Model the fold of this input.
Amino acid sequence: MLQVAFFNRREIRMGSPYNVCGIRLSGSWVPELPEADWQDIRAYRPDRKVMALVRWDVPGNVPGFRLWILDTIDEIVETSERFPGCCTSLEWKSEEEIAWKAFPDLEGTYRRKKPV
Done:
């Protein structure tokens, strides 16, 4: 199973309830990922073989994020398109679909691409 540890948590902006941090991964398969600019939110698929992480994507200081899906079965990393806002939660809806919520009052889903 792939595990993540968040470190150096700090507010994304002074007074913000949202954090930016670094990550450290451990497990039998550890992909190379950027170390910085992550949000301290993760969600494991119920079988715990696939994990979703949130990485900030803030061009021009406009809040947004991308989901990074880490699949230990096929040993692949998948990155979503950019979503607006500040992620508040992730939840797997099915084996291939994850739902997200973001401030202010935004929500959506991301369906994984099928491995080739």
Observations:
- The beta strands are 3-11, 19-26, 38-44, 50-56, 64-71, 76-79, 83-84, 86-92, 97-103, 106-111.
- The radius of gyration is 14 Å.
- The chain has one domain: 3-111.
